[in-house]
Write a structure and sequence with these properties.
Elements (H helix, E strand, L loop, with lengths): L1 H15 L13 H10 L23 H18 L3 H9 L9 H32 L1 H21 L5 H14 L2 H12 L3 H30 L8 H19 L22 H12 L2 H9 L19 H53 L4 H50 L3 H14 L2 H11 L6 H32 L8 H20 L7 E2 L7 E2 L3
Helix pairs in contact: 1-6, 3-8, 3-9, 3-10, 4-5, 5-6, 5-7, 5-11, 5-17, 6-7, 6-8, 6-10, 8-17, 9-14, 9-16, 12-17, 13-16, 13-17, 13-18, 14-15, 14-16, 14-18
Length: 536
Amino acid sequence: PLMGLFLLCVVATSKLTPRPSPLKKTTTTATTKAVSRRGGGRQAAGSSSSFGSTPSSSSSPTYAWAVLHNWCYFLSLGLCIPVLPRVIASIVNEDGSTIVSARSSRVGGDVEGLDKLLTFLGVGALGALSDVVGRKALIATSALGYAVTVVLQASAKKKSIGWLFLADAIDGATSCMNPVCSAYVVDVVRDPSRRAIAVGVFQGLSVAGAFVVGYPLSGVLSAKNTKPRRPMFVAAAIQLLNAAIALFVTPESLPPANRRRLTTTAAGAPRLLALVATLFKEGNPFAALKRLFASSSSLTLTATPPSSPDGKEKKKQQQRKGETNLLNDDRRRGRILRFAAIAYTFAWIANLALNTTFVNYVNKVFGWGPKQAGPLLVVVGLLLAVVPRAVVPRLGIKKSIQYGALVFAAGYASIGAVAKESAPLFFAAIVLCGFGATAIPALVATVAQQAPDSDRGAVLGALGTLSELCGAISYPLYGRVFAAALRRPDKLPVATPFYLASAFLVATFLVANRADLGGTNNTHASSGGVGKPASL
């Protein structure tokens, strides 16, 4: 069924996507002119460098389409997050109550862990697949997959725990919205110097901006916790609309002429076989992680072909020098990616402590439901939407990563150290975490700076793969740690998950400082171009 769902989306987008039209003469930027010259008269994907525009009815892809789809996706997520723990509790608890218990915390962590594990196994392939078939089909597939997931979760009855695992298995197998939309962003922002900030702002607007609306709306729709499943059905409807927009309205950012060519083992190999070979080579999770953690970069680099005949020693020496520089650049980018991926791993595991524990924590300590927690979550969402755009351009990526990690760690530690059962102090600690979370989009920007055009979908898909692996570890980990704290409050403080997350953030700072991430040596070379500092 999942394969049929994807094939339906591919067929629909292939029928609806217009053929590239001849490139009209333009007097925009030098970058656009260079792209058109390389393109030989065909339309270049995403020639627009603007990322503040709104979707239009024209066939020209813009930054705002990616924001729209990701925003809708995370809006649905924001509707479900505040109520899902209570829905799980009503299914798991013997008395059918919606009060969070040690068992519901453990089951919730295991269910989400399965989701993240399957996403880890598949998101890299889906990201690489978007380089082959285009972005639209994968956006629609992800939206439809999450719609089915939410309907199954909301329809599950008491003690039907299997429905929860089935629902998250479907979500895990189709989840790729964020990395594919990120690839859409960098498709349309052609100026390399603007891509880093575009990715960071995209994350803030589409993710945090969606939560600003989703969290309080979930509290309203749940009618003071009396109808916790209602927001989930609304979330499913939003994803159906999201998929329809992707299929029938959204322009494709990656036209066929710019897509990755399929890997073939023999001349005339069937297209399906070539597609499977390409995905196995480029999209399996271990190949995806290799892109980030290999000793030298696994990204595609194009060397200048030899242009001098044999016997011209001077030109041969120049060619060898160029090849040596290319190899050194490959090694440098591999080092940046490797350390950025390690730092991102620690930071994302720490970030997931808030995702996995916040709702259960405030329910246990303060007795809050979605309506009471909503305003605080709105503040966090606003901080995540506004702070990166305001802070990162001023501090630069390096300081945003390092200072952000330390501030984030201090916010987590203060939850247990000073906030405890004081709601105002807890609010202040969460606000501190919101400022510190600037480190995450800065790390994403560092990775995005190193990706060539033809591999960007796969690289950001690899980062999504890493995120899901972190989730597969973090959700069961924090769920069990919180469950242990509920069972043995005399041995473990309820805020133990936040203390653990604070330690991960200290590790993030140490790695970033050791590798000088975001420093002047972190340059980007795209398609053989001149490197630019990885700063905003």
